[in-house]
Design a protein that fits this description.
Two copies of one chain form a homodimer.
Chain A (H helix, E strand, L loop, with lengths): L35 E3 H8 L13 E7 L3 E4 L7 E7 L2 E6 L5 E5 L6 E2 L12 E4 L3 E7 H10 L1 H27 L2 H18 L6 E3 L4 H8 L3 H13 L3 E4 L2 E4 L2 H6 L14 E2 L3
Antiparallel strand pairs in A: 1-2, 2-9, 3-8, 4-7, 4-9, 5-6, 5-8, 10-12, 11-12
The structure holds a DNA duplex (30 and 30 nucleotides).
Chain lengths: 274, 274
DNA sequence: CGTCTGCTTGATCAGGGTCAACTCAGGTGG
DNA sequence: CCACCTGAGTTGACCCTGATCAAGCAGACG
């Protein structure tokens, strides 16, 4: 488009070897910060019991920093590493033929990026930072071979893939069967749960994404999202101030979680063998 | 292992006329059907290059038969095995709190069932046979340990998980952004492609599921599905007779694949790497 | 101070959901 | 053989949710 973007940071100025690395100088010269993570740290983020890990203290994974608006990887780009979110907020989007973008997820601390690149060896979605981000680079090959030495880690990898599948499955179910209010309510509760899981308040938090992005994620327009939030605000279920959300009646929100789909379908299924 | 595998049908020789038919005798009395499959056969179904497989000729996987309407597994049921579709048609459904069922997928030959059970060790969806089915049971532990000896197999497992992820991802994208006609068109094309991939006609095929199930899968009502099909029929893009579909203008259907979402969104993204 | 982007709110409209009537095919039993 | 029933599918009429269009406001930034 016509305007000059605000981030002047020249993307092509890195001199490092691997394509996923960014210029440490551009990232803010984080040498005294955490540029490398141990396997133990990775395991903690992934919620793997790291009790048996010893002798690998020297094993390090590189960290990379991204600023808000920067793209971690694009669709079609060659895949060779996953990224584990150490801190920050992001969005993963799908770009349909000719421009329209569809938000798929809002990864945050502990989430794994790039899983969809394993198949076909190139990323199937695009990931963009919504805030300053610190990501840990996990070269896929390295991760797999590590898994062979650490069964819990290997189990966890399968777990994570399967879990992500379940999540997307639920997402598809929701998009197919729930109305706008229920979608927004679920979204708010999900966000609350994730913040709580990270140790922050699940009652009062700050959304990092625009209404437009929320709408895209939920299969709604930004206007509908805005209106629904205003609604919830008026009836006192939540309090909205810009991107700050306060959950004031969680029970009420939860009660919305199923909505205008045909309820009580007859189910006629013969129990199979075994 | 106990095996009296008579095994008169070589794996490749599907001589039956229709893809959903299996030997009725075998379905009735399992002793005379193919009760066991070799690793090679499994690899073929999964499209793994099975060139290096030798010495494992004795390794067998049990087959199980299901009749139309039977349930392969229920939500919450303990997970210990995946199922590979050898023949037949099925649906996987999500049951939301209190009965409403949401169709997630229509697995057929070569598809893997139960992936969502890896995480949490219990199935997250329910699978029901839509026709006579012949499934190969792949105990998960066994499969993983096999993967350690056969790198291509291990790669394939990761591949399949990732691929399934990409599929559900695209599904979510579609549900969030496309109109009814585009969804139905995509569905028809997808079915055509899958039939073609199995060696059957991609122009003339028979849907195994009801309008209601299609609607649930696409996030539409059965009436909308029916109307849309009638529409396509009237304008000559397809021909519909009950569940038999003939694709008469594939190009036209493909041209529908993006629909009333906001087109041409401005994209302001700073390239992070490269 | 002007512009731009994000957000809110209102007015209008249409895609598709809902309800209902009817047809058709298959199955069952007298 | 036919009467009857059931479930799938089609089609029409109506209406509601949420998309679209449009105007106005607030905060960020040059």
């Amino acid at each position: 488009m016509l305007n000059t973007h605000t981030y002047e940071n020249p993307p092509g100025s890195n001199s490092l070897s691997a394509p996923w690395q960014i210029d440490p100088v551009a990232a803010g010269r984080q040498c005294h910060g955490r540029l490398w993570s141990t396997l133990k740290e990775v395991c903690n983020l992934l919620h793997v019991p790291s009790s048996h890990l010893c002798g690998d203290e020297e094993l390090l994974f590189q960290n990379v920093q991204f600023k808000s608006g920067q793209r971690i990887h694009a669709i079609g780009q060659a895949f060779d590493a996953l990224h584990l979110v150490h801190s920050g907020f992001l969005k993963t989007v799908l770009i349909d033929e000719y421009g329209g973008e569809q938000v798929l997820h809002f990864p945050m601390k502990g989430d794994l990026l790039g899983i969809d690149g394993i198949h076909a060896r190139c990323y199937a979605s695009e990931v963009v930072a919504l805030s300053e981000c610190n990501l840990i680079v996990l070269p896929f090959k390295k991760l797999i071979s590590l898994g062979k030495d650490h069964p819990e880690l290997e189990d966890t990898i399968y777990d994570l893939l399967s879990q992500e599948l379940v999540r997307k499955q639920g997402m598809a179910g929701m998009l197919g069967s729930m109305g706008a209010e229920a979608r927004v309510a679920r979204f708010l509760l999900a966000m609350a749960g994730r913040f709580e899981g990270m140790g922050y308040s699940g009652k009062l938090f700050n959304l990092r994404m625009t209404r437009h992005e929320i709408g895209s994620y939920l299969g709604l327009t930004l206007e509908t999202v805005s209106r629904t939030l205003s609604n919830f605000n008026e009836i006192g279920w939540i309090s909205v101030y810009q991107r700050t959300i306060e959950i004031k009646d969680q029970t009420a929100l939860e009660s919305l979680r199923r909505l205008p789909s045909s309820c009580s379908r007859p189910r006629k299924v013969v129990q199979g063998s075994l």
